Amino acid sequence: MITLSHRDLRLELLPELGASIASFKQDDFAIFRETSPEAIAARDGRAFSYFPLIPYSNRIRHGAFCFAGQRYNLTRDDEDPRHALHGTARFHAWRLVEQAADRARCEFAFPGHNPEWPFPYEAWQVFTLAADRLVIEIGVRNTHSAPAPAGLGLHPYFIRHQSVLAQFNAAYVWEKDAEDIPLRSVPDTGRFDFGRGHAISQADLIDHAYGGWDQRAVIAWPRQKRRLLIQADPIFRDVILYTPVGREYFAMEPVTHRPDAINPTDDPKDAPMTVLPPNGALSGRVAFILSSLNGTP
Fold this sequence. Notes:
The chain has 297 residues and is mostly beta strands. The chain is built from one helix and 26 strands. The chain has a nine-stranded antiparallel β-sheet with strand order 10-11-12-13-26-22-21-16-19, with no helix packed on it. Strands 5-15-24-23-20-17-18 form a seven-stranded antiparallel β-sheet, with no helix packed on it.
């Protein structure tokens, strides 16, 4: 573990565990959920504060897809054996290539092999603390000799204090089938509508991707008088909201594509997963900007 700090911000980073985050705090207030020593010892990335989603986000149905006329079958997830989940980069040791007091860069080269992921790639993350924010730059480069699909995402978990609020604007939400795979885009009405902001209930499960997102979301903790603005680059065209029932955390994930985007639907709003040419790259930044609840970052 390495520690970055800037004024009242502190970030604990785990380069050898997927370049994941173990803690992100402002003074004594945990913005991301904190990672236990037991989770680190067990290398249990699902219990970390944050992990990267590379080279794809969320689920691939049954771990299967076709690309360039060939069918591929991926290793399925241990906890959800129906599908492949959250990419490969989180399972591997990354190299810490740069470090300063408030900045670190980590890199990872994946050779490409079935059944984990058939295409080689290089990935990087840069973590920077400034006066009021954490900025994460994330990227992937296709090192295959032919075009290859690629996607990115960030998977932070936030503290679910009582009365926590969330607000973001989206054009639609992806309705899912019984296997939690998107079927069609529908209006984000009722409990799925966060346009005006409302509480994240511990009794309500949402595990859905939102499209037509404007790359901006706000999380507010009224009792703690804290506010977090999430501001993403345009490549992060979707956001995934995950609110597990009865848990003290939730996730809001800026991503470049919907779950299972490698398997297209016939929905007119569907967008294909990015295909990178040889040596082509996909990258972007997400800023987590802190203020008092009544302030405006």
